[in-house]
Amino acid sequence: METTTLTEAELKEEIVKAIKRVYDPEIPVDVYELGLIYDLKIFPVNNVFVSMTLTSPSCPSAGTLPGEVEQRIREVEGVNDVSLELTFDPPYTTEMMSEEARLELGFM
């Protein structure tokens, strides 16, 4: 059986694709394009660290979104472990959205 080893850049690309399958239930845009992912690092042996926020500390999906992001990353072939940190510093603003998300939501 042959296993393919992804480069760090390829693995990161696969992780971003996985994160883009997670949507805020109240907004029809994925969490990556919304700008909720503050940091994404890959450490040796493919351990992934993600720092993310929510649109607000009282976000109704606060209990589910971080877990869903972590689960999607764990499903990426080659990922060894995932550490997810939820932060509200800096506080989220709509300026953190990608241009695509701002267009989609009518902010432009």
- In order across it, which strands form the biggest sheet? 1-2-3
Sheet with the most strands, sense and barrel status: 3 strands, mixed
β-strand amount: 15-25%
Please give the count of helices: 4
Mean pLDDT, to the nearest integer, reads 91
- Terminus-to-terminus distance: 50 Å
Assembly state:
single chain
Query: Ranges with pLDDT <50 over ≥5 residues?
Result: none
Q: What does this protein look like?
A:
The mean pLDDT is 91. The chain is of the alpha+beta class and 108 residues long. The chain is globular and about 40 Å long. Strands 1-2-3 form a 3-stranded mixed sheet. It has 4 helices and 3 strands; from the N terminus they run H-H-E-E-H-E-H.
Which SSEs are present, and which pair or pack?
Elements: H1 8-19, H2 31-34, E1 37-43, E2 47-52, H3 65-74, E3 81-86, H4 99-104
Parallel strand pairs: 2-3
Antiparallel strand pairs: 1-2
What keyword list fits this structure?
108 residues, alpha+beta, three-stranded mixed beta sheet, 4 helices, 3 strands
In short:
With 108 residues, the chain is α+β, with helices and mostly antiparallel strands. The chain has four helices and three strands. A three-stranded mixed β-sheet has the order 1-2-3.
